[in-house]
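thread from #wetlab-drylab

HS: before we spend reagent money on co-crystallization trials with zinc ion, can we at least see a predicted complex? here's what I'd submit
DV: go for it
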Amino acid sequence: MRRLAPYQTGLWLAEYLDIRCQLCRVYRSTSSLHTASHSVINNTVFAKLRRNINQRLNSGLLCADCHHSIAWLPKPFDVDIAAGTALTIQAATYYDYPIRQAIRAFKHHEDMIKLPLLMHAIRQLPRPHGCHSENSVIVAMPTTNQRLLKRGFDPVSILSAQLSKHWQIPLWSGVERIDDTLSQQGLTRAERLSNLDNAFAVTQTPPVKRLLLFDDVATTGASLQALGRAFLDSTAVAGVNPSPTPNLYQIFAYALAHGSQS
Ligand SMILES: [Zn+2]
């Protein structure tokens, strides 16, 4: 993680120095801050500015209007990871404008300007009930070395580091991605699942029983499903009992955004 400094500086600036909304600053031609400096006696503008500052002090990186314009916390959905065992996936928001554009710019063009908006979205994820630093770890969706080399940075690890800070739950990285076959993009659900068979290898025993999986975008949930299965399969291989023991781990899954990749 040699590239921590630039994005951390950007986040710090966005959080503490830049009191403009991280969304309408980008997508609107004027900002309330700019207008305020030219309308000294305009009380409504000051009132709006004050609201924006209050919103920011409440850990918001967006103004209240922009915050409410995005449908936060989609309904969670389940995927099966073993017979009778479902993995529940909760996303912070939908993979739609403006989050979709921000994720793409961040992921594919390393656009750190978009990170505060994504950070704001991550902060909408409530810490799972009963989970804390002593009994839970966050498991970021691993990438392959090939992808890391090609892309030069790992967007999911940066986002999961922010989630770790938000929840005060440590990251754990004892699982590796061993496939580097096809991108999941554009595949049917059946193709995604078969593509993901044996994609992950659990290389260490998790230190706790509660595993909070995290990925940037969940579409069908196939990647998180395969990652969850890898933990259940690892207990089947390592344990005396040849059948998977689903109750060994409590696994939950989270994503920044839920929606279609198309
Ligand atoms: Zn705004």
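DV: Residues 139 and 172 are 5 Å apart (CA to CA).
HS: ok that's useful, forwarding to the group
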